[in-house]
């Protein structure tokens, strides 16, 4: 009798957990969500970062398959950013059970200034590589853009604020000193937060 009651309580607890997990809404496919896809023609666009309702969700070319974007039905604001380009912002209305494609084209920001010939070269080895990278509050790209033999970031000499963020992880935020014509490398591993995903 005791074992049967315990089994029923365990089964009830499991069902309650599954209900709460799937009714969360964000990123979970159900009858009240719709899918958002992104149409990108160039490598610049495919590597652009995506924010939904002010929250970074990843870069364009990775948002498919098990990382596809599922949003609760209703209005949402999409913002797509790339270093050296103007932000693309659009409001969309998500319909339950429907998929829609956001078409966009990044336009070069002609007012953008770039480091001169004495720029410091910074190579970042970031984990997870899909994290968003900011310098002085400006979006520079995702972690994978600045690691490896042929990838790095050029910054003007002096002090800068480096910030790296990803949902489910603690934000990395520190001041760095860039030395003119100097090459340096940083290894940064984000620590998982309380709301971190099960797998990355």
Helix content: 10-25%
Q: What global shape is seen?
A: globular
Query: What would CATH call the architecture of the largest domain?
Result: Sandwich
Number of strands: 14
Beginning-to-end CA distance, first to last residue: 43 Å
What does this molecule look like?
This protein is mainly β. The chain folds into two domains: 25-103, Immunoglobulin-like; 120-189, Immunoglobulin-like. The chain has helices spanning 2-22, 43-46, and strands at residues 33-39, 49-52, 55-59, 69-72, 74-81, 88-94, 99-103, 120-127, 132-135, 138-142, 153-155, 158-165, 172-178, 183-189. The strands form four sheets. Strands 3-2-5-6 form a four-stranded antiparallel sheet, with no helix packed on it. A four-stranded antiparallel sheet has the order 10-9-12-13, with no helix packed on it. β2 and β3 form a beta hairpin. Mean pLDDT is 83; it is low at 1-26 and 196-200.
Topology:
Elements lengths: L1 H21 L10 E7 L3 H4 L2 E4 L2 E5 L9 E4 L1 E8 L6 E7 L4 E5 L16 E8 L4 E4 L2 E5 L10 E3 L2 E8 L6 E7 L4 E7 L11
Parallel strand pairs: 1-7, 8-14
Antiparallel strand pairs: 1-4, 2-3, 2-5, 5-6, 8-11, 9-10, 9-12, 12-13
Give a summary of the structure in a few sentences.
The chain contains two helices and 14 strands. It has helices spanning 2-22, 43-46, and strands at residues 33-39, 49-52, 55-59, 69-72, 74-81, 88-94, 99-103, 120-127, 132-135, 138-142, 153-155, 158-165, 172-178, 183-189.
